[in-house]
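Suppose you are handed a protein chain with no further information: no name, no annotation, nothing but its sequence. What can you learn? This example shows the usual starting point.
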Amino acid sequence: MSPVGINTTPLLVELSAQELRRRMAEALAIYVEAMDYPKGTEFHRAPMWTEHTHRPGWHAVAAVLPDDADDPGSGEGTMVGIAYGYRGAPHQWWHQQVREGMHRSGADERRIHEVLGDYFELTELHVARAAQGHRTGEALLRRLLEDRQESHVLLSTPEVDDEDNRAWRLYRRLGFTDVVRHFTFTGDNRPFAVLGRLLPLAAEGTENAHSPSR
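A reasonable first move is to predict its three-dimensional structure. Written in structure tokens, the prediction is:
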């Protein structure tokens, strides 16, 4: 693996479903490290990630350190970040889990439909630890959400004390607000927050955040 220098700026590369499948091991290694899951989790996640590529509106972006200085646009090189998502739909497991979480938190049917009726699910956004601290996560997120036609975007992220980590600071900086807090998804005993905001994102350096939890 190429070293990640402090001044290194990764290249953002759009991934087709075929390309993600080819580079699945790299992407899942980043995911397992970033989420602090035990080794071996990647073997269980690979079929799920592959299935996700068939969902309507699926889109993926990777951050790559080019191996070939003469052809950096080739997209080849060391992957240091991965982001993907797709259009949310009622039959999907995550949608059903969030709906249940909203119901338990007291949201009425009108509010649940407002949030879950038209959204892009930011399914995964992860940056290798050695490459963090250079706003690579923000760059991936902005690229992934460009030109989305859904009315807003939703995501889930583990709860942390005082919202004090890079992921939380990124989401708050970009205007994501609470939809459900301290929710436990089936199969993971850690508490998660579900966050969301309206689309589109404003251009970098401006603000157009709007809360989906009003």
